[in-house]
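[09:14] KT: can someone run the structure on this one? pasting the chain below
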Amino acid sequence: MGRPKILTIFNGSNHEDGDRIPLSNTVRENLVNKPDTHQDRFCRSVFNYLGSLFSNKKIDGGSRTDEEEKVISWLYSLAKSGKDLVFEYVRSTERGLSFTEAERRLKENGPNVPLEHAFPSWWHLLWNAFFHPFNIILIVLSAISFITSDNPNGCIMLALVFISVSLRFYKEYSSSKAAMKLSEFVRCPIKVQRCAGRVVQTELVVQVDQRDIVPGDIVIFEPGDLFPGDVRLLSSKHLVVSQSSLTGESGITEKTADVNEDQSTPLLELKNICFMGTNVVSGSGTGLVISTGPKTYTSTIFSNVGKHKPPDDFEEGIRHISYVLVGVMLVIVTIIILIDYFTSHIWSESILFGVSVACALTPQMLPVIVNASLAKGALAMARERCIVKSLTAIRDMGSMDILCIDKTGTLTMNRAIVIDHIDGWGSSKEKVLQFVFLNSYFKTEQKYPLDDAILAFVYTNGYRFKPSKWRKKDEIPFDFIRRRVSVILETVSTVERSSPFLDTLVVTKGALEEVMKVCSFIEHIDTGAVTTFSSEDYHRIRNMEEELSNDGLRIIGVAVKRLRMRRNDLSIVNVETAESDMVFLGVITFFDPPKDSAKQALWRLADKGVKAKVLTGDSLALAIRICKEVGIRTSNVTTGPELELLDEQSFHETIKRVTVLARLTPTQKLRVVQSLQTTGNNVVGFLGDGINDAPALDAANVAISVDSGVSVAKDFADIILLEKDLNVLIAGVEQGRLTFGNTMKYIKIVGQIAIPWDGMDEDDTKTPQRWSEKGLPMFILWNGPVCTLCDIAALLFLMLYYKSHDKELDARYEFFHSAWFVEGLLMQTLIIHLIRTEKIPFIQDVASWPVICSTVVISAIGISIPFTIIGEVMGFVGLPISYFGFLVVLFLGYFSAGQVVKRIYILIYKKWL
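[09:31] RB: done, structure tokens below
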């Protein structure tokens, strides 16, 4: 509980401590803020709160936050600096921190937690759930009902309030804990170099919990270790790091301490900086912790979580309706009570009558209707293998008009397949495939997916390369310095069985540039001629590589070399000797193919008015290739580094125009979503499954993840797919629009509880459905007079016809009550059929069977009540047949006039519900 801490890891202090290293430069002071005092924080929080109440300022999706700017500037400053200056910046030494200084810094900065999330108190959440105008209306009416001894009605209204408040409280209390999943990062021991001793200081390597790491610590890491904070490398040996938690891509990157970067290098491509939450794949090294806790780059990604969730237009609309309802109710009920009192001079009866009118004006069943519609939609989506965590997300899916999706695993199969095997001149050659197959077949260390792809391609296409004729002698494993792998194979020919020498072959595959570095010759496979590897060959192959890469293909090179080795030579093959003066054979191309269902799903979404935008951390060329395969336009594309160069206006214009955005950071994904929401006024869905997607998921109107996603992504998601297939979302969109339409039917009609089980016109589900502030008032202004005219016609008929034809009935007060009751009940029951569709009811379109059945049952009960004992208790009398004949004519006239008004309304406003 309590407020989030503002850590001051970059700031000085006046504490006197012999172990403290003084801060002697001003760079740090210009990069970060000084610590806030409690008074400053309190004053600012008050003014921010007051400002938020009166400000309608939109989110700026095109610029970084001040905190993010400071962190990025700090990282670049240390990436560009030499090691000596870096130690000075963080007030540390090459020996590391002393235990005393580390303890002092831990107290000053707080625990190394990427995001300190303060839970709102339960009573605060309960108060927010309770304090809603609609709830207040029901509570006031229930109180008056109890005062006037109308206990049943009071209990019903209180029960509705309890259900509404409980559902909202449970939802908000559960979702408030999502950010705490980030603490999973901080439960592992870290090797730290500390110094000890008063006279002669000794360097010690100790294990420290990640929560206790402080800026200035020197950490030691090896394969499998997580970086406990943002780290400036001091030394590295073959260091390879996975940054998938930040980029969302499975690729890996090399890191090295022996480089000073410049400002032009993209942040996540800095070679000497490792980020909190990323992990070591291979190699080892040491690094200086330069940022911890909320001051790390990873933490800035999540700093806006929960702050920029767009307002729910539907909920805002319901709130405004409630305000209008309160105002109208107060005016009308006050007038009615006063008129009734001046007539009867009895306050109790006047107040009771006023409460009855207020209850009639209140849509008491609205929460039940809304929740029933949402629950029905959730059950339908569950049958489509789509789990709904937030019921309101179903309605938002009906309004969604843009879906942001990642490429890997969503549009593609997330696995590589071999496309071609070509020589140095671009022609397909089987020999290239044969030798790359032998390399993958005999390779035993560090099997990669590309090896599986090569083997699968050979086996499924019927090649017979007879690996049994070869025997593996040795292997030179892959490393991220050479970026290639070699196997040494031997075979004894029939002619040379008596020879003391073996025919030995070195087969190498790897990154094309690295393979070409060790090649001195190139083979013309058609003729078998081997010539010197010239600069012309090099440039031709590099140009071919560029063309293939632009087509979204991944490429590896293949080379061979023959060795003459003695039979009894058991010495280990020398890497430099074996991988030198090799013969270049060609390249193998790979591709992550699109899913068969992706193109169909995107077409179906487009047909329903939902545009797709691809947001990926992968390369632009690969993203364009995939998008072309699945039918997404690629005429307007951009990348993360290009977006960083744009001003605010250009940023928003670019986001609105482009369909493919590649090489995006997590923060850029967040800004893209916010830009679409604010400047484009779109309802945005975001499909993501990684930690890097969490900020964008939190900001999206509809957050969608998959069951195989990380826990943080699933916690932020409103909807979880049990299959990573876009077709599953189609059902969600359809159910969302059905739910929205049926809810709007109730709001505009205040009719039957069977509405959630009604269907919708096909045209109404083809386009996104959104709440319109002007829609309801205009709907009432157009359709209200039709109902009013029908009521007036019924009143005139009762007064004029029966007054002249049946004096006895006209004199009976009970007759008018009975006739008005039946007319009003039938009107409210039948009106749903006129309003629910833009077509001609009962002729062009018929409601679902639950609505038809409820209409028949309610109408039959309403007509029969005046003829029963219940009617006698209520003061009703039986009605003549002539009155029911009049009602038939009245309702035919109402439906005819209503249909004319409906067509005119649709012509003007281009929609009905």
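[09:33] KT: thanks! The longest strand covers residues 230-242.
[09:34] RB: yep, looked fine to me
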